[in-house]
Design brief:
The structure holds two protein chains of two kinds. By secondary structure, chain A is mainly α. Chain A is about 75% helix and about 0% strand. The chains are: A mainly alpha, B mainly alpha.
């Protein structure tokens, strides 16, 4: 069951990177939040009930519902729809995500004897690298934030794979994820949009040497 | 109640009060209880050296030295901040946000130093990102917003990478029953850690915390931050946060040094250091804005510290000595730039000559500070750079030593070419006036520079012995 969820999670990354609409990005983020909830519920069998409850609430309510809703609000407020032109070729994006997933799988297969589960590691590394790819290759600030959230979900998934041994680190990281995400979304996007009048990250480059 | 708990709860209360109280003088007054708490924390540290509390906190001698240093720079930064905010007649709201952020920033740095648990240390460092971004954005200008946004966003990605490194460490200890991220626990189980995962962990740790230490690869946002933040904050970044970033990397280095990957890690540190030194050289020659020059100078010294760490042996002592003296001198220089900013003389070196006519004492302090930061005797940095090069030659790493020397020569040339403008004054120059200058604003820098000289000419025996003992266990 967990493996099926992880495959769906990885496919959501593929679909995300091939998408043009910001709405699709957000729908996939929401789906990933729900998948993380299910994976956490099934995998964390040995942690204390209060830790588990905290993690489940965070994944389902926060990652699955609250953040996507708020992102939709930000997009609507700033009248953004497309991340890039809908007719642009997304062949290269598909190629990149395919390479990321295959590369992560091969790496996981090589390292499977050193304490990792292949599927967990493949899905989490794919998510981390996809997040980095979105942050470095896409233009809009809002997409950068989405990239960060994808990266963050990947780290969360990685922490789940060792979660039974380390509940503390998971709780701390979740706590700060919430803090960072709220500040990122709530404070800076609004400020950057209203004061700098820019929604594209590469145009915010007035500071030079 | 435990003193450590009193420190954290007391600081949280002070920060909350500062946030809600809009009266400026009452807000400044609240620094007194916080400074008392900070002093108490230092006493706590000295009295509880190497004692572990609840698996989460431990003060080792190295952390104690850096904690004292950060506290000292923090006190000076707070005094300068009060002058800075008051001279600019900032609104009560801005003052309250600034002061509250300073407290959170100081507590985050202190907490990171005291953490024995590597996950907890990460959490404290993350706290410095949030408060640091608020401090950078203090001036509410477009440039400040851009710098704060970039620092916050890239900083978030950096600490996320560091978290991946920590998780890899968790995987490396997969074979250990009931593994935790407590340093004290892990150091007793290093033989059971998987070397391959340790290598991956170290790469992510260096990349992630580089944003805090201000070295390769994520140094660029740190430069923008020091440039756009108020000068006392720039001093805290260079004299405080940089040390915390180093200590975060060092904790992992220290832990992994008991494994078979030590030689590999040393090579990584040397190359990261050398690359940082190279980029610093290129930009110091190119850049004109004085705060950016100082920020790139921090990149240079961060690089030298990493090289000292990588060379090992005598280099360990040199690394910590360099960190201490650099913090003293660099924070003095950042404090001094406030006057240049006030007179709008910070952008072009040609303008700096007007600073001498306007504020001769301030200009001499700045000039002396630049001489010291270039490690020219009697600066204490000369001692550490000498030890660094000696360590390289002793180990037979001549190429690294020569490369570092050549780059340092370029840096001396580039920086002196600009700073000598301070001394050659054009008689027809229009002299801008700096209003509201208090004598204590220069005095604090003089104290810091005198300390840097003492470290170079007559280093205190207790500090030398304390530091030698603290690094003696390192291979």
């Amino acid at each position: 069951m967990i493996q099926v969820l992880l495959v769906i999670y990885t496919l959501s990354l593929v679909y995300m990177l091939s998408a043009g609409r910001l709405e699709t990005f957000i729908q996939m983020l929401s789906l990933q939040g729900v998948l993380l909830f299910l994976v956490a519920y099934l995998e964390l069998t040995e942690v204390h009930i209060s830790n588990l409850a905290f993690i489940l609430i965070e994944t389902l309510l926060f990652k699955g519902i609250a953040v996507p809703l708020y992102l939709n609000y930000v997009i609507g407020k700033n009248q953004m729809t497309y991340e890039r032109e809908p007719d642009s070729v997304n062949f290269y994006s598909m190629l990149k995500i395919s390479m990321i997933v295959v590369g992560s799988f091969l790496l996981a297969s090589q390292l499977k004897n050193s304490g990792i589960r292949v599927m967990d590691f493949t899905a989490s590394m794919s998510a981390i690298l996809t997040g980095v790819l979105i942050v470095t290759r896409r233009k809009k600030i809002i997409t950068h934030v989405i990239g960060y959230l994808v990266l963050d979900n990947g780290i969360f998934l990685l922490s789940l794979s060792i979660g039974n041994h380390m509940p503390f680190i998971i709780n701390i990281s979740i706590l700060f994820d919430i803090l960072i995400e709220v500040i990122l979304l709530g404070v800076f996007i609004g400020k950057v949009s209203t004061i700098l009048h820019e929604t594209e990250a590469d145009k915010i480059a007035d500071i030079k040497d | 109640m435990d003193l450590l708990l009193i420190y954290f709860i007391g600081s949280a209360v002070v920060a909350c009060l500062m946030f809600f109280i809009k009266d400026k003088w009452l807000n400044y007054f609240l620094y007194l209880p916080f400074l008392s708490l900070q002093l108490m924390l230092n006493f706590y540290g000295y009295n509880h050296l190497n004692q572990i509390r609840d698996d989460y906190f431990r003060v080792d001698p190295l952390a104690m030295i850096i904690l004292s240093l950060v506290s000292l720079i923090g006190v000076f930064a707070i005094i300068h901040s009060i002058f800075y905010l008051n001279n600019r007649k900032e609104s009560g709201r801005l003052v309250s946000i600034y002061n509250c952020s300073i407290i959170i920033f100081m507590v985050s740095m202190s907490g990171a130093l005291l953490s024995d648990h590597l996950g907890l240390m990460w959490a404290f460092i993350e706290g410095s990102s949030v408060s640091g971004a608020m401090l950078i954005y203090h001036n509410r200008s477009k440039g400040a917003l851009e710098a704060a946004w970039k620092y916050f966003f890239v900083g978030a990605i950096g600490v996320a990478m560091a978290l991946v490194g920590i998780l890899f460490l968790g995987i490396a200890g997969h074979d250990i029953a009931k593994v935790t991220l407590s340093y004290d626990f892990l150091v007793h189980h290093t033989s059971q850690l998987n070397p391959l995962w340790l290598k991956m962990s170290f790469i992510f740790i260096i990349a992630g915390y580089s944003v805090k230490m201000g070295i390769i690869p994520l140094f660029s946002v740190d430069i923008d931050a020091k440039d756009k933040a108020p000068s006392p904050v720039g001093a805290l970044f260079s004299g405080g946060l940089m040390n915390i970033g180093f200590m975060a990397i060092f904790r992992f280095y220290e832990l992994f040094s008991y494994t078979s990957i030590l030689a590999w890690m040393q090579q990584i540190c040397i190359w990261v250091g050398l690359a940082s030194l190279f980029f610093a050289t290129v930009y110091i020659i190119k850049v004109k804005n004085i705060k950016r020059v100082l920020a790139y100078s921090s990149l240079e010294h961060g690089g030298l510290v990493m090289m000292a760490l990588g060379v090992g042996g005598l280099g360990y002592f040199a690394a910590f000595w360099h960190l201490i003296v650099h913090s003293l001198i660099k924070s003095a220089l950042f404090f001094q730039t406030t006057q240049m900013e006030d007179a709008n003389l910070d952008k072009q070196p040609e303008d700096w000559m007007a600073y001498y006519k306007s504020q001769p004492l301030g200009a001499i302090i700045f000039f002396v500070g630049i001489i010291f930061i270039l490690a020219i005797p009697p600066s204490g940095l000369f001692v550490s750079e000498f030890y660094l090069l000696k360590a390289f030659f002793t180990n037979g790493n001549y190429a690294y030593a020569v490369a570092a020397l050549v780059l340092l020569l370029f840096i001396i040339s580039g920086l002196m070419k600009r700073v000598l403008n301070l001394l050659f004054t054009d008689h027809n120059l229009k002299i801008p006036q700096v209003s509201h200058l208090y004598r204590i604003e220069n005095s604090l820098q003089i104290i810091l520079l005198v300390m840097a000289v003492v470290m170079g000419v007559y280093p205190p025996d207790f500090l030398v012995l304390f530091l030698q003992d603290a690094v003696a266990h390192l291979k």
